[in-house]
Amino acid sequence: MEDNNDKLLDEKNEAGQAHPQDFALPQDIQHLILASLPGRLVLKRRRVCRFWRDCIEEPGFIDRHLSNALRFHKSIACFTSVDGGLVHMYTFDPTTMNFKSMDLVFSCRFQMSGPCNGLVCSYDLKGAPEVFNPTTRKHLELPVSEIQSQSLFSEYFLGFVQSTKQYKVVGVCHRVRSLTFEVCTVGTLSWRAVRESADLLKSTKAVIVNDVMHWLLLDEASSHFTRKILLLNLTDEKFSETSVPDAVKDRDLELFEGEGKLHLWSNAGKGSASTVSEIWVANSTCQVWMHMHTIYFPIPAGMRPLFLHKKKLFYSDQIRFSYFDLQDGSDYYVSMPFVFQSFKQAKRKVNMEWRMTRVA
């Protein structure tokens, strides 16, 4: 049906005055405009005429559109997953503090990785993961490796290697006494084990900055303290470790991304009378840390930092969403869409994922 509609539109455009050769704008300018539009508008505009469709379907168009999206379309992606495989996507503009509801998407997986250039890796704790595009609604199911099938459960994270333009999915396979890390390059449909370790991660949720994934390593099973950060470079798929600042080694720590850099949030932890927390920022190699800011405002229990954007620290739990303005020292609550409250009141299974991403 869609092909027939495209053919009909092409015939009408060629017969009428909607042909791009009749436009006042040169064709190369039309190329630039199309590559600057949000993804959902691009999908609609491909039906206008054959010329625009051919422009959009060029192999190089995807790279140009992605480059523009990374530069100009900066927003936060929020996903809610409910029973039946229904995924609701929102975008949040940190400048206007407004949410925008996107179209509903169906996925048979409930867990969501953080978005990467508009793509998401969805998965169950047992079973095959898939990479899908909420804009085009296209799904790519990945295979299940032998290690994953023998694991207690697995988690998956999606990253992008800028130098090779490749997407890679990292699987963290939980076994009885160890974790096994596997990598699958999207398009190859095969997994390769890159590390097996008995190290304990404070959180298996990877914090991705550029093309490097980061995890906090626990000192021991009975402790929540950490003195090391585990890094996985997606380009060469090699692991390394770096230390946290000496001044925060005996404090409760969380990693988060902020404007292309790795940040560390430290607080006194549970049971402490101190409400002071600190933000540290790492250099590009994560070998040098600089103290960035001290927060005297008490962050509510259960809230964890999500990202830093224009001197605003956004943090959340599964229900609340707030930010702390580092410049004026004030804390603000952000109202979430009504549908979140509807899901909560209906006591349906809800999973929210907040990640800083560029949504084209």
TrEMBL record:
Domain F-box as annotated: residue spans: 25-65
Pfam families: FBA_3
SUPFAM superfamilies named in the record: F-box domain
Gene3D superfamilies, alphabetized: 1.20.1280.50
UniProt-listed InterPro entries: F-box-assoc_dom_typ3, F-box-assoc_interact_dom, F-box-like_dom_sf, F-box_dom, SCF_F-box_component
Protein name as catalogued: F-box domain-containing protein
